[in-house]
Each structure stands twice: as C-alpha cells, then as structure tokens.
C-alpha cells in the first residue's frame, strides 16, 4: 500500500494502546478506545483540541504553569479558550501540590485539564504516585476530563510501564481519558512524526463514532499519516526480541540521563557551592529546570559558550561525562561572580535552599 487510511496503521495503534493502557487492558479488549495514528505528539494534541472545539464549543482547557510552549499554540489555533493551573513551585524547584489541588477544586465542574503523564516539560517535576491518586480523586469529585500528553514514556524511569502509572491510576478510578503519545524521543523518530491519539469512551459504539469523527477532522488537515515511522514502531513492538532490545536501550538512555544528573550535582557540591542543588536529582526526564534567570543564562552563553533556553531549562541529554565538569565549573563561577558583585543581590537568592520545601 502506498499510503495509509485516514486513521493510520492499525498495527501501530494496537501496540500504542498496549503501551499506554496496559498489555491486557480491559478497555482494549472491550473496544472502548477510539484511536488514530497522529503526527507525533503535537499532531495528537492538535487533533484532540479540534475535536474538543467541534463537539464542546463552550469548553476551555486548563494548562499547567509552566508547560511546553507549543501547548498554548495548539489550543489557541484550535480556538479553544485557555486557563492555567498552578504546577511549579519556584522556591523549592518542585511541585506546588497545594496550589495545584486548589486550582482543580476551584475549576468549574467538567473542565478539561492538560496533564503531562511523566517527565514534565520543561520542569522535570512529576507528582508522586500518592499525589497522582489524590489528583485523580479530586478529578472524579469535580467530573473533570484529563487529557494526558505522554511525550516521554520511558524517559523518566527507563520503564515505559512505570512511566504510564499516572494514566493507569486514572483508569483504575474510572475516568474517561484522552492520551497523546509520541515516538519522537523513545524511538528517535522525530523526523517521521509517529504518534497516536486515543480517547477512552463509554462503550464500543461510542468509540466507533468518536474514531469516525477524529478521522473526519484529520482528512482536511493532513489527509493521512506517514507510513515509514508507523512501520518502524509496528515492527519493533510486534517482535518480542526487538521489543526486548528496545526496552533495554530505553532503560540505558534513561539511566544515562539519571547518571548525568547525579554527576552534575556532585561536581557542583565538590566545587564548594553554597547553593542547594538537590532539585537536579529530584527532577526527572530530559530536562532540568535549573532556576537560573534569563540574565544568568545569558552569562553562561556569552562567557562560557553554554547554551540553554532562557528560562533556565537544561537539556540533560546534552550533558556528558566529557562536559559535565566544565558545565558545573561554569555555573559555579558564574554564581560566585554574582555573589562578589553587590549589585547582583537579586540573583544571589535564586538558589537559596527553601526552609520548608514542598514534597
């Protein structure tokens, strides 16, 4: 076949659902999930946003502060009104769980919430399993709809099953959910735009209807998804030997990033830094939300040729055994020069260890 149907590769979709919902999921067996192949995670989010706009035109989406910047563009261009909810706690460089729960409780009943399933981008801060259970319970009380963006399954812990835990908790609690999956990172298929959008429905009949509508939205948007990436995913996940090798490599990749976090923190501490760097190892996934200001990031770029986004987000995938000592030394020297400059007192307190950090 030269091209796929509007809904994409059935084999790829089937394997994607097993990754997200579980190998022996009752929802897969009961055919309650409407799913289509999407143009990676971005395309999956956009399809869902257009679906939301078309069938619930008066609804809005709650997006965490901060989030991946393109989330705002996706729902904006789909003409879905946006609100934000509290997520990151700058002082502890961790989760503002109290603020998050307050916003969930105060949102109108039946609101849509965008949740990062694991390895939150850009902060690297994820709720604990217990916190996810509390979030799920409060969603149930408020009848909110959770939409999970799972762009980094495997990147957080190295175990795709463990990284899907938040989704499994919501499923156990009886939620209907939406899920965007991407193979850009965990299979290195950035250029192939391989992803999946799934929506858990009330029954098989509703799932058939929802999938039909998703395909109708996709048709004028991009007609049908690309073949090559879906074949790669299907071949790997359908072959036990290849899948086992993939899982091993995903774990190796995640373990390397975890190791670089530990090395960066240890290097900074060995340099005698008086600042707290616990957040480097407390956070998880590809990115470390360092807490550095745009001005501090600019100094690292201009004086040490170290490059990161101006919100202080470090790509831990770019930290290696060969450059981690240089990176730590540059950060340490930059903060030391600020401490010696009385005019930079505002910057000096950026990394002061919190007296009562959030969990």
From TrEMBL:
Pfam families attached to this UniProt entry: Aminotran_1_2 (PF00155)
Catalytic activity as recorded in UniProt: L-aspartate + 2-oxoglutarate = oxaloacetate + L-glutamate
Q: Name one GO molecular function term.
A: pyridoxal phosphate binding
Q: Which cofactor does it need?
A: pyridoxal 5'-phosphate
**Classification via InterPro entries:** Aminotransferase_I/II_large, Asp_trans, NHTrfase_class1_PyrdxlP-BS
Keyword Transferase (UniProt): yes
User: Can you cite an annotated GO cellular component?
Assistant: mitochondrion
Q: Where does the record place the Aminotransferase class I/classII large domain?
A: 2-331
- Subunit structure and binding partners: Homodimer.
Q: What is this protein called?
A: Aminotransferase class I/classII large domain-containing protein
Q: Which domain of life is it from?
A: Eukaryota
Q: Which UniProt keywords apply?
A: Aminotransferase, Pyridoxal phosphate, Transferase
Listed under GO biological process in this entry are: amino acid metabolic process
Annotated family: Belongs to the class-I pyridoxal-phosphate-dependent aminotransferase family.
């Amino acid at each position: 076949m030269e091209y796929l149907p509007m809904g994409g590769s059935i084999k790829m979709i089937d394997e994607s659902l097993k990754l997200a919902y579980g190998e022996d999921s009752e929802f897969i067996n009961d055919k309650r999930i409407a799913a289509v192949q999407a143009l990676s995670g971005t395309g999956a989010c956009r399809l869902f946003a257009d679906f939301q706009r078309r069938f619930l035109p008066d609804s809005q989406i709650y997006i965490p502060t901060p989030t991946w910047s393109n989330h705002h563009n996706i729902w904006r261009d789909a003409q879905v009104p946006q609100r934000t909810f509290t997520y990151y706690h700058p002082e502890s460089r961790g989760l503002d769980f109290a603020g998050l729960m307050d916003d969930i409780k105060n949102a109108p009943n039946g609101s849509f919430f965008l949740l990062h399933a694991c390895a939150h981008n850009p902060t690297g801060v994820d709720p604990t399993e217990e916190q996810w259970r509390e979030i799920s319970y409060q969603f149930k009380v408020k009848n909110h709809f959770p939409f999970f963006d799972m762009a980094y399954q495997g990147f957080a812990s190295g175990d795709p099953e463990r990284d899907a835990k938040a989704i499994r908790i919501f499923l156990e609690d009886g939620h209907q959910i939406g899920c965007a999956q991407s193979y850009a990172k965990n299979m290195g298929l950035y250029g192939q735009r391989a992803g999946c959008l799934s929506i858990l429905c009330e029954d098989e009949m509703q799932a058939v209807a929802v999938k039909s509508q998703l395909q109708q939205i996709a048709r004028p948007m991009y007609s049908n998804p690309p073949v090559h990436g879906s074949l790669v995913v299907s071949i790997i996940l359908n072959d036990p030997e290849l899948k086992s090798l993939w899982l091993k490599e995903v774990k190796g990749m995640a373990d390397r990033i975890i190791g670089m976090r530990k090395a960066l923190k240890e290097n900074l501490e060995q340099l005698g830094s008086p600042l707290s760097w616990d957040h480097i190892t407390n956070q998880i996934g590809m990115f470390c939300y360092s807490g550095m200001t745009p001005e501090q990031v600019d100094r690292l770029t201009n004086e040490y040729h170290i490059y990161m986004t101006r919100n202080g987000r470090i790509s831990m995938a770019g930290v290696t055994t060969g450059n981690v000592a240089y990176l730590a030394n540059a950060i340490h020297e930059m903060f030391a020069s600020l401490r010696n400059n009385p005019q930079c007192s505002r910057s000096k307190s950026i990394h002061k260890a919190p007296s009562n950090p959030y969990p």
